[in-house]
Amino acid sequence: MHSNLWVEEVFxxxxxxxxxxxxxxxxxxxxxxxxxxxxxxxxxxMLLNDGLVMITERDEFVYHDMITHVPLFVHPNxxxxxxxxxxxxxxxxxxxxxxxxxxxxxxxxxKCVIDACIEHIPQTSEVLKGHEKLELIVxxxxxxxxxxxxxxxxxxxxxxxxxxxxxxxxxxxxxNDIYSCLSENGIVVSQGESPFxxxxxxxxxxxxxxxxxxxxxxxxxxxLSYPGGYWSFTFASKGLEPIKDFxxxxxxxxxxxxxxxxxxxxxxxxxxxxxxxxxxxxLIQNPETLF
Length: 291
Ligand code: SAM
What we know:
It is globular and about 50 Å long. By secondary structure, it is an alpha/beta fold. The chain has 10 helices and 12 strands. The structure holds S-adenosylmethionine (SAM).
């Protein structure tokens, strides 16, 4: 049977991305957002929240490698990791590949996302069915960060865009709480939006981080599924730096294999283009050049 169905993500009425859909696998309206899983013709299964592409089977490895392995290879001994959001499971999957990790707590607000991914996207969600080191909490990450007494070596904010329940995840109160939840050498990495389309959101995120953390950086990656393809993560810490404190021999020693991340890319991801550097002047400590 031939399908003429496409999903389109539209950005501010100026730009749209279309993906050919073979079949709609899941479609629900939860308390927080619409949640859809579709089988696409070119990108495998795709998760959309409120019509925005979250992950596709074809390129989820890029996002999940870069949000996870960068901080976990900078921290010398990441025993405890907190993931906020990340309901598809891809980030928790990557965290749990690190032998040093003794416990990963994941706090996702929307059970519907978890259920949809467990049912339809095992590629990312397998660990959500149960893993001895994973504590999966269905709840608000903002509330969790405020109330927990646990300390984490690395916190990963794998959130949707700053709308709805994710809006507070971009604010100062949340990051003050994150600072308190981090251990002495702690690092927080967050989904940092598009350098092209969300320049102002990036600026305000970095202003918030600068008000709280002594070290603030940004790094970029390219994928197939987010508007414009070029995207960022923010990196903030109590002291550790993503290049100076990166011991590349730990990547070899881990014997982990990756499809996107590698030692060279770890460093080069922090070499951001000039337009991006100019825009974020005074807000990041990325090196100008290493050569
Ligand atoms: N890779 C994705 C992206 O950037 O498009 C993010 C994927 S993950 C599915 C994002 C998750 O964050 C969503 O499932 C959403 O429900 C969750 N989320 C949003 N606000 C949250 C909050 N306050 N606490 C916990 N999880 C939250």
